[in-house]
Amino acid sequence: MKIKVINPNTSWPMTEKIGLSARLVAAPGTEIIAVSPAMGPASIESHYDEALSVPGILQEISKGEAEGVDGYVIACFGDPGLYAAREAARGPVIGIAEAAMHAASLIGSSFSVVTTLQRTCGMSWHLAERYGMRHLCRNVRACELPVLALEENSAEILNRIADECRRAIHEDGIDSIVLGCAGMADWCQELRQMLGINVIDGVSVAVKLLESLHQLGLTTCKRGDWAYPLPKPYSGLLQPFAWPQGK
Amino acid sequence: MKIKVINPNTSWPMTEKIGLSARLVAAPGTEIIAVSPAMGPASIESHYDEALSVPGILQEISKGEAEGVDGYVIACFGDPGLYAAREAARGPVIGIAEAAMHAASLIGSSFSVVTTLQRTCGMSWHLAERYGMRHLCRNVRACELPVLALEENSAEILNRIADECRRAIHEDGIDSIVLGCAGMADWCQELRQMLGINVIDGVSVAVKLLESLHQLGLTTCKRGDWAYPLPKPYSGLLQPFAWPQGK
Amino acid sequence: MKIKVINPNTSWPMTEKIGLSARLVAAPGTEIIAVSPAMGPASIESHYDEALSVPGILQEISKGEAEGVDGYVIACFGDPGLYAAREAARGPVIGIAEAAMHAASLIGSSFSVVTTLQRTCGMSWHLAERYGMRHLCRNVRACELPVLALEENSAEILNRIADECRRAIHEDGIDSIVLGCAGMADWCQELRQMLGINVIDGVSVAVKLLESLHQLGLTTCKRGDWAYPLPKPYSGLLQPFAWPQGK
Amino acid sequence: MKIKVINPNTSWPMTEKIGLSARLVAAPGTEIIAVSPAMGPASIESHYDEALSVPGILQEISKGEAEGVDGYVIACFGDPGLYAAREAARGPVIGIAEAAMHAASLIGSSFSVVTTLQRTCGMSWHLAERYGMRHLCRNVRACELPVLALEENSAEILNRIADECRRAIHEDGIDSIVLGCAGMADWCQELRQMLGINVIDGVSVAVKLLESLHQLGLTTCKRGDWAYPLPKPYSGLLQPFAWPQGK
Amino acid sequence: MKIKVINPNTSWPMTEKIGLSARLVAAPGTEIIAVSPAMGPASIESHYDEALSVPGILQEISKGEAEGVDGYVIACFGDPGLYAAREAARGPVIGIAEAAMHAASLIGSSFSVVTTLQRTCGMSWHLAERYGMRHLCRNVRACELPVLALEENSAEILNRIADECRRAIHEDGIDSIVLGCAGMADWCQELRQMLGINVIDGVSVAVKLLESLHQLGLTTCKRGDWAYPLPKPYSGLLQPFAWPQGK
Amino acid sequence: MKIKVINPNTSWPMTEKIGLSARLVAAPGTEIIAVSPAMGPASIESHYDEALSVPGILQEISKGEAEGVDGYVIACFGDPGLYAAREAARGPVIGIAEAAMHAASLIGSSFSVVTTLQRTCGMSWHLAERYGMRHLCRNVRACELPVLALEENSAEILNRIADECRRAIHEDGIDSIVLGCAGMADWCQELRQMLGINVIDGVSVAVKLLESLHQLGLTTCKRGDWAYPLPKPYSGLLQPFAWPQGK
How close does chain D come to E132, measured CA to CA in Å? Predict the structure, then answer.
């Protein structure tokens, strides 16, 4: 199957790291296409950035539909544009916050999210609520690292994340750590070894969930809330997004 | 004070109707600027349309900041881009679903939403949950009218809405009707008279709430979740949206 | 329009302070009538006091109906008798806890209440739950000040309140402070300047909400839970309260 | 032990029926004192009536304290003044809605309330929420009988209640019926036989719960939310209620 | 009436202590039969132990039915097998966590549970949720004592429990302590005197609730979720459990 | 990897059907071991049956640990013994209700469960609540078929299930059907074709989730609520279950 992993920010070094994490767990026969959109913010650190990452995501979905993609990962912990993407795609679409929280709920009785900036913690709480995982989520913790700092593979950055994870373990009484940024994906294994606890990266979980749904013959229901968009004109800069795209 | 009412779809006849409803209740001294964005969908009838209405909304906010606007109404019942807009604006920003539900909670013990298409009902339920109004919202009902059908001022359309309101009154046991589309704003008075019950249009409520906050000296908190976006480059089609816009 | 602000305790100095706060924000053309009931507790610091403040409130509503009052504020943070008052009045009735929490929800993503005595904190939590604001309310904090201590305009009292607000800011991670007692209303501006954060006084918000509802032509629904009381005899001391009052 | 059963309305025939139901289940050695207050509404059918029944209840508590009463039942399904009464009494105070819902939760997985008037149903839903019984309460159903109609022991009235109970059984899928008015207490046995299902009357349950708490040495905690009221002056008609009463 | 108190672990010294606590509060005419099952774990300190205590409990129910038992107490704070036992018994069945939490809700506005091991705290939280008592439960605290350590009547053990209770009082702001293990039942009085706060032991409460239900003529509804099990063959070691047992 | 699928009832024909469904979706390299326990009920149709299916499940876990099993499916829609099994196993354990509901949440915005007997519907509601899926679950519907009737591959049985599914589609407004019994697993494909909607069988989903977790290196956390049971003696019939089993 063909899985497109969309890193909604336009930082290609991060996209490559994310692609690597995805490929590491992909089944034989799964092709991973990791992309950044052709438009949008360099990093996603606010509701503003998040909202403006969505057109680029939807363009990638549209291209993916033409390329025969079977499923999509939205690789930003705010799961931006998830429901819009579900409407636009034939195959299933999974966000990495969604994926990580589901996995955490299968293997532990509680988790804390460790993410980048304090100002984005509210989004994680909102998603935990939306996905029915609020009762498992004990805390959302910020390392106060800008997203793009994660591009550097420095020991200092890793230690700062590890320290926040340790605080989560000691203060929150949790079973698992959920990494709250796609840019942390490649440190997942290392953190597990350092901490001796389940550390969950949503990118790799999302890939396995898509493979699972594919094998099970399950895809987004097209009857209800997530039916294809209705055709209509779009204007101005966004004229090319008129549904159906590229028609 | 200067209030900008943003109709997130690009249908100007609807924008004019919305502007009229806003002006009808505005205090002397309040200037109402009713606009449609220069980009985006002709109507909002899906998560896809909603997501793609947000760049246009944010552009209008940005222009509004330069024009000295003191507060904004997002005049689409899905409250698209509300939190992103709050980050970008100096003054308060209010969505019409938010406004209508708050008003309903002050004057009745329950309400039903009457909206356009079945496929958008899930969004209204989600907003009721998000705003803490889930316990008051008894039902979300669709008239199965496309949004742009509301542009016509035909008696037939009005009757279809009135019929659904009557079903809400008889079957849902409610105190008030919340109109689930900005395009219904100008029928609000007529429906009240036909039905003999509170009928609430979010556009006019939002205007009064903005005037109230203005008079009270209250505006969106800039310390926490809704601080101004962090400056950063944007690329491609969306390059002009790089924060701070127009700099 | 005519707004009656009812301070449910019988302390007239506090009533005057409350009236002042109300007049400060009232629109031209709004007449503010600030009263204390002719019966009841000197201050409200328990469920017992609260329950026994309600007959006086209802008497004031009854007098207000005869005087042509268009809307009522119940100016005690427990919102005593709110639903009974809604039944008895033609125009809308708003409690100051309700008003303050609604305002807080429009401009921030979280708030803490700062109130007088620890023993009343449970009431505030209950109201946050009842109004659907539980998810925004991070803490209810007591300054351990008796209500009537607020009558003194001493710097010491102000500082004690400001100190508790500062603790809320540092420990609760909130966007706004909600003042948990009508007696704090006149310190609202001063606290905003001292703290550099939104400080919300329910008295002034309630006035603006009543003006807004009035302008919008919205009032308490008289069909459902808050229909006028059924006529019937009352006996003993409370005989004069038999509905309809004064008939 | 001495239990005072307070029927908050001033209808003595109903008080006698309620007293009878209480005595029927009281343990040997339990003295039941059934009273109506000396002031207040003839029946409780609105928030207005409910609020104005509270002074009379609190007066009865005060008299009860002087008489050596060990526990109190508030025999109206809205549980009026429950928390105020708990503050004023040495011994425990139990409301009949509270009692009935607790009992229902011990013997079945769901219940419906069958009460008098539609306009009071909202109160029952609110109490179910407040007591943590919302997940068990499937419906609140009104027979559209005025409260005082229950004084007549007519077969017609009984049949109307029984019919509504039957609808509850068939349509709500429930295990037990909770009688939503103290005035129905004496039909409890008859309804059980007619319907072949658990029918729960809160008056008798409350008596047994008080006896149980008494035997267990448990009473309302006087440290926290329900500590004795603070002493202070009261004015006007309510001057005699100044705490401590009668001092 | 005949009440069987089932201590689900096989430690008879603890069973005797539990029986003693039950007899201390039982009404004249109530016969208390305190038993440990003939099979199962020596103590219950995990989900594994809890699950495997259930067959023994159900065997005791079955024997009790033959012996004419009128009601059952499941005397382990996890309330193991409660719903299965309700299906199998003619009379009501009450768990001690359920009983203690209900009692706590009648006399205070919040409680903390003080239990044995940290790993069982999740179960208590789950039960608080299930019984609708989550809003009252402020904390679940472990003394880190193995269950069987409670068999010793040493002052050291008592002090460790008392210390944890004191921390609950000071840090959790609660009205009552709920003892989170049947093995603590006989220290209930002593702890009340040491701490000056309501301390609630579920064993004694459950006995009084059963007596109350008995007197009220109320028992588990046999129409719905807790109807008698359907007859069917069982195999292997558990063949004797085939319903109806002993037939 | 080695996956053991435990059908908790002792009906081997059903076990074979379940094994077949599991193998149909298993990845190459996954070995499916489908078993019924050596003890317990012929079918699970009550809390009583469910509780008594757990010892057999735990015995199979214990045997599986010796056999090198990497993950377990509990193939009964009540997910009996799930947390006890998680404590006892090295690898992850997944219940089919849990699996099916998670899958439904990834591809649709709502689902109804279609199950066998009305009396088990309460269990499904409880699990939806427990797993945080209550907001997606619109209904739990019974076909009033005994579990073992599903062993027959008759068209009549299939049609009865399909009819209930059709009612769910028309009356509940849902996106997906969740099959509420492992015995329905092999009709999943046929029902999808008949109904044109997502039909989800938890057995196959659970297999894919286990494979996913295995590939991701994630397993039940052994630090917290689901640590291995504490060693201790067991007595009577259940003596062989003393942890660690077989030691």
Answer: 4
pLDDT tens column, F75-105 = 999 999 999 999 999 999 999 999 999 999 9
Beta pairing partners, F234: E41
Domain with CATH 3.40.50.12500 in chain C: 2-96+204-241, 97-201
Q: What residues in F contact A108, CB-CB < 8 Å?
A: 220-221, 224, 226
The CATH fold assigned to B2-95+204-241 is Rossmann fold (3.40.50)
CATH of domain C97-201: 3.40.50.12500
CA distance to partner chain B, nearest, from residue C235 (Å): 30
**What does each of the 247 residues of chain B score in pLDDT, given as a tens digit?**
999 999 999 999 999 999 999 999 999 999 999 999 999 999 999 999 999 999 999 999 999 999 999 999 999 999 999 999 999 999 999 999 999 999 999 999 999 999 999 999 999 999 999 999 999 999 999 999 888 888 777 899 999 999 999 999 999 999 999 999 999 999 999 999 999 999 999 999 999 999 999 999 999 999 888 999 999 999 999 999 999 876 5
Residue of B nearest to C207 (CA): B212
**Touch criterion met for B and A (3+ Cβ pairs within 8 Å):** yes
CB pairs below 8 Å between B and C: how many? 126
Choosing among 2.60.40.3080, 3.40.50.970, 3.40.50.12500, 3.30.70.1730, the CATH entry for C2-96+204-241 is 3.40.50.12500
Q: With contacts defined as CB-CB under 8 Å, which chain D residues touch E101?
A: none
Query: CA-CA distances (angstroms) from residue D140 to C110, D109, D165, D173, F126?
Result: 34, 16, 11, 13, 22
> Which residues in chain F are classed under CATH 3.40.50.12500?
2-95+204-241, 97-202
What does the pLDDT look like over C40-81, one tens digit per residue?
Answer: 999 999 999 999 999 999 999 999 999 999 999 999 999 999
Tell me how far apart the alpha carbons of residues F187 and F64 are, in angstroms, rounded to a whole number.
Answer: 28
ipTM surpasses cut 0.90? yes
User: Smallest Cα–Cα separation from A201: which of A66, A8, A21?
Assistant: A21
Residue E247, pLDDT > 80, answer: no
Class of the domain covering D97-202: alpha beta
Q: Which of F209, F217, F220 sits opposite A212 (nearest CB)?
A: F209
| Nearest residue in chain E measured CA to CA from F46 | E229
Contact residues for C117 (Cβ-Cβ < 8 A; gap 6+): C45, C142, C144, C145, C146, C147
CA–CA gap between residue A243 and residue B53 (Å, rounded): 13
Cα–Cα distance list, D206 to A88, D73, D89, D91, D198 (Å): 58, 6, 16, 13, 16
Residue contact D54–C49, C-beta within 8 A: no
- Contact residues on chain E for F51, CB-CB shorter than 8 A: 51, 54-55, 58, 81, 84
Distance between CA atoms of C32 and C26, rounded to whole angstroms? Answer: 8
pLDDT (0 to 100) of residue C246: 63
Give the residue range(s) of CATH 3.40.50.12500 domains in chain E: 2-96+204-241, 97-202
Quick one: closest CA in A to F134, which residue?
A132
Q: Which of A105, A131, A175 sits opposite F223 (nearest CB)?
A: A175
Contact D38 C119 (CB under 8 A): no
- F196 CA: distance to closest CA in chain E (Å): 33
User: How many CB atoms neighbour CB F38 within 10 A?
Assistant: 15
